[in-house]
């Protein structure tokens, strides 16, 4: 008897989740409004960006083919994913408000469909967009960003984006550590350089110290200047001095002066591997790359939360109509983006865990979504 009831319940559940004509109607409205509004803002963004950069393009004789295919064809997906969650929210608010104004929501609920069941096509459309965002962010946009940034360095920016760094600590191998007081990415020179090697028990085996170090682009080697080396064997210590010596460092100049934007040029697997490398080196950059990793998970999930909030807000008629719903939706969506930026800065500059920083906005706005769902018309 219980098994029969379980089968009956399962059949009823599957029947409820079966896609109906009204579901197809809502999914079509949702996805259509989202992609149309996104396309519209992308066209506006391209026009304003071109107007701002046309002088630089002409001054540096950028080829038209490169402008179109190397820059704008790779600028569009980057910009689209930057604001995709925002336009998910705007799309839901816009077409659901229109359905409420036209009493379509009332007709749907009066037909016997529950508000919870009405959320099913919204969930399916959100799932499509979330997968779309995740795949683009992790596998397509990183390669597009690399091409776009190379174009900007060649035809737009007047100087390198690589920043000089100070107090650099790296672990380059087991028990081998490198320190550099400062590194200049333009001259490829570092100051107050040292390499320390320890044994398995943690005792110092050798230490190379130099007043400066430079990278030879022809030999692809680092040369230490005005150096001395301490070799420690038991209780004995041997010191060697000299003017310059080539080192066997496996690091490259970009490891000391990496472009901050390189985090956006790594695919999912590359990002994971590089994070493991940074952990081994004890790099200060680790938080930045962890934030990017967790952001790539949090953003697709935000699509579901913002959709939930949007439907709950706009499924009833309110005084002020469509304009009031869109205005309230914009306030909530921009506050979400602002909250996300604050959380990432707190993690970078403070002690906030990067994963927690990226998920705090989703947690808070999930609570807001549940409260609005309770208040929505049933």
Characterize the largest beta sheet: strand count, sense, and whether it forms a barrel: 6 strands, antiparallel
Strand and helix order? HHHHHHEEEEEEHHHHH
Strand order of the largest sheet: 1-2-3-4-5-6
Strand content: 15-25%
Structural class: alpha+beta
What is the number of independent domains?
2
Strands, total number = 6
The low-pLDDT segments are none
Radius of gyration from the alpha-carbon trace, in angstroms: 28 Å
Distance between the termini: 33 Å
Mean pLDDT: 83
Query: What helical percentage do the residues reach?
Result: 55-70%
Dominant shape: elongated
Total helical elements: 11
In brief:
63% of the residues lie in helices and 17% in strands. With 378 residues, it is of the alpha+beta class.
Explain how this protein is built.
By secondary structure, this protein is of the alpha+beta class. It has 2 domains: 2-157 and 287-375, no CATH class; 165-258, no CATH class. It contains 11 helices and 6 strands. A 6-stranded antiparallel sheet has the order 1-2-3-4-5-6. The longest helix has 41 residues, at 115-155. The chain is elongated, with a radius of gyration of 28 Å. The two termini are 33 Å apart.
Task: Give the arrangement of secondary structure elements.
Layout: H1 2-17, H2 21-59, H3 64-82, H4 84-101, H5 104-110, H6 115-155, E1 165-173, E2 176-184, E3 189-198, E4 204-216, E5 221-233, E6 236-246, H7 253-256, H8 268-281, H9 286-314, H10 321-349, H11 354-375
Helix pairs in contact: 2-3, 2-4, 2-6, 3-6, 4-9, 4-10, 6-9, 8-9, 9-10, 9-11, 10-11
List keywords for this structure.
378 residues; alpha+beta; 2 domains; 6 strands; 63% helix; elongated
